[in-house]
């Protein structure tokens, strides 16, 4: 069995935001269910996010409307560099914040006086029509808001497998839910939203109740390594981008297989045929895995 062999599509830059909130000593994350009509991961539960728009790349403008200077951007969001320069970091961060508001109604920004009525209007408007591409520029350009880029922490870097027809070069950020706001899906790109513990989400995925995208599934397994919110907070203070994760995708007649970069056979030209899926090799909850098997609408983790 060989990896699907098509001319790779150039991946589009994108950003994702993992929203976290405390639940006692434990914590929950926010997941959105993508519309069944979506052209990418339809029906899957994902973190809020989307592509980096041209407006997000206007770094000369954003530098006057974020709460970090150039040195702070590098120290807070650069860490090991991760293949990003300062301008890349800012544009990815702005995209993550903008998309999270558009999809979930939560804005990581600080109000500089005023009533906040403009933001309330935008929250209502996004449920009826798509917001203008420049809505965030207009909001902060009025002088009423500053984008809190400092709220973001690097988590991981994913690139869609070469064999896929739609590909994204995505930076996954993590941030804690701001006080006084609540999540609400837009009911267009996303149709349902839930706050859920990583363990409950992963168990729901195995039952087919909360079908997770491969990056969301892998990320939530990583979150199991932090039993309380204090440990997660400490990790977010110093976490680097780490190695890029570009899985290998193998299509089969009635299923599909993903090999993650740490799989022992990831670089093999030929991959041993899989006939039973995870079977008895399914990875127990919280244990490492290197492969994902797709069948009946669900990705399930296992080891070769």
Question: Secondary structure elements and their pairing?
Answer:
Blueprint lengths: L11 E12 L2 E9 L10 E2 L2 E3 L7 H4 L7 H9 L7 H19 L4 E3 L5 H9 L9 H7 L3 E3 L5 E7 L8 E9 L13 E7 L1 H9 L7 H10 L5 H10 L9 E4 L4 E4 L31 E5 L2 E5 L2
Parallel strand pairs: 1-8
Antiparallel strand pairs: 1-2, 1-4, 2-3, 2-9, 5-6, 7-8, 10-11, 11-12, 12-13
Helix pairs in contact: 6-7
Give structural notes.
The protein has one domain: Nucleoside Triphosphate Pyrophosphohydrolase. The strands form three sheets. Strands 1, 2, 3, 4, 7, 8 and 9 form a seven-stranded mixed sheet that branches. A four-stranded antiparallel sheet has the order 10-11-12-13, with no helix packed on it. The protein is of the alpha+beta class. The model has no long low-confidence stretch (mean pLDDT 89). It has eight helices and 13 strands.
Q: What is the number of beta strands?
A: 13
Structural class of the secondary elements? alpha+beta
Order of helices and strands: EEEEHHHEHHEEEEHHHEEEE
Helix content: 25-40%
Mean pLDDT: 89
Provide the β-strand percentage band.
Answer: 15-25%
Distance N terminus to C terminus?
14 Å
Number of continuous helical runs:
8
Structural domain count: 1
CATH topology: Nucleoside Triphosphate Pyrophosphohydrolase
Characterize the biggest β-sheet: 7 strands, mixed
Spans of at least 5 consecutive residues with low confidence: none
Overall CATH architecture: Alpha-Beta Complex
Determine the CATH superfamily.
Answer: Nucleoside Triphosphate Pyrophosphohydrolase
Shape: globular
CATH class identity: Alpha Beta
Q: What is the CA-atom radius of gyration, in angstroms?
A: 19 Å
